[in-house]
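The instructor's notes for this session suggest beginning with a concrete chain rather than abstract definitions. Hand out the sequence below and ask the class to guess, before any prediction is shown, which regions might be ordered.
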Amino acid sequence: MHMTRKAIICFVPLILSGCNFTTTRPDPVDVPATSNHQKLVASEKIANLDGKSGINVDEHLQNQVAKQQNYSDAWVLLKDNLQLDRHVTKNSVKQKIAWFAKNQEYLDRVSDRAEPYLYHIITKLKERNMPLDIALLPVVESAYQPFAYSPARASGIWQFIPGTGKRFGLKQNWWYDGRRDIVASTDAALDYLEALHKQFNGNWFHALAAYNSGEGNVARAIRRNKKAGKSTDFWSLRLPRETRNYVPSLLAVAEVLKHSDKHKIKFKTIANKPYFEQINIDSQIDLSTVSKLSGLSIDEVYTLNPGFNRWATDPKGPHRILIPVDKADNFKQKIAALPKSERIKWQQHKIQQGESLGKIASRYQTSVSALKEINRLKSSRIRAGHSLLIPTAKESKKYYSLSADARKFKGLKTTGDGKRYIYSVKRGDNLWDIGRHYGISVSQLTRWNGISKRSLLRPGQKLTVWVKDDKNRKEKASLVKTVAKSTKLDGNAYIVQQGDSLWLIARKFDIHVKDILEWNNLKKGKHLQPGQSLIVQQNVTGA
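After discussion, reveal the predicted structure:
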């Protein structure tokens, strides 16, 4: 989830000596047939709804009959039970429909990624009596990619930023990120959406807009329109560009699904039955062991359990593993027979003069907190000559192909054309200035160094820079200085115009005022001068 923004695994073997586990295997989503009296009651209840809620009343009533059917395909269940008014005559919705209708391959990829998760999400929505349309929200947020990560640090299929994730109970540490945990993040996302729905008096469009841009932005837009005597429906509100596109994108996906034949689009079949079983156990385990016991590849283990960042589960939990239903019973038997000592590989490390817990943790791919807990240390102070018990990976780094380190390395273009320079960050440096100095783009810098455009630089930090040759570097730098004289600098810098304010500039680039203050070392309340240059970084959201 973005707030105007522009995203492993916990498996623990179970042993027979005192280790308990529980499993959860949800029932099918199909709704049992209702009586005529029940349908009449449902009709009377829904008849009170109107366009202000965002619910299409006629379609909702039709869905009462559809809900009695038995569905073998989760997409068909969704298709027959959509509730939100899709506003297909709005230009923004039309444009999004046209895009999805031309991108069958994209929707195929979405279906492939959604297969393990869709049934679970539909089940949770039905339990809460929320519109099933919301199961399509991860299509817009992340294309159902559990490892999706935005420049604003939003992560997971529901794209929570760190702060909002913590607000809704998603644990985030070195070992584990609940924003990517399918079960935990789905619960948190639905909690958030329910809270927003209540806050905005039952209006789903306002709630969805607030999920994207933050409740404050939507509330302020509503107040402005009320004060001006204007309509406060979603389409009349002055919201960030990203949010104005966000809700239409969801409606467009729903429309293409509802009328897939008309748009000549097919959604790959996803079985309307549980894909995974939740197996709760009691301690840390190496994910390679989970792979071997379950018969899953290490990639499959991470895909079902993307919340875990490293080679093992979080020693402090959650101690919950998702395993495909057809492999769950066999996995439980094997893990019950596995001695607890074999869940994790242990090594003794003799502390050397000058070593710190941080250096030792980095060497063994673990965390300081884990070392302190395992060795019962009250502080980070250690003495040379003493020994530490270290949990270590059973396999090489390369084996854990979807760990945080491996994913970072895969997405990192560590080499470039020309000569390699190592730049030491100085106080006051920013990515734009460093890029300008070398005649390269901020995108190149972030790609080469595995950082985001919003990363804070520390004095002394080392950055890798590739330039073809000195002449090329000077020519590029000269070109950048020439371009800097224009009003806008390729989305990275902005020349203040007469009448500008921080709020207007933030709105223009879909960013927060606090971001501009931070990027430019400005104090709140600082007056801008025409001709002043400001660093700005536009939000980018990709599927």
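Then share the key points. The chain is about 40% helix and 10% strand. The first helix runs from residue 36 to 46.
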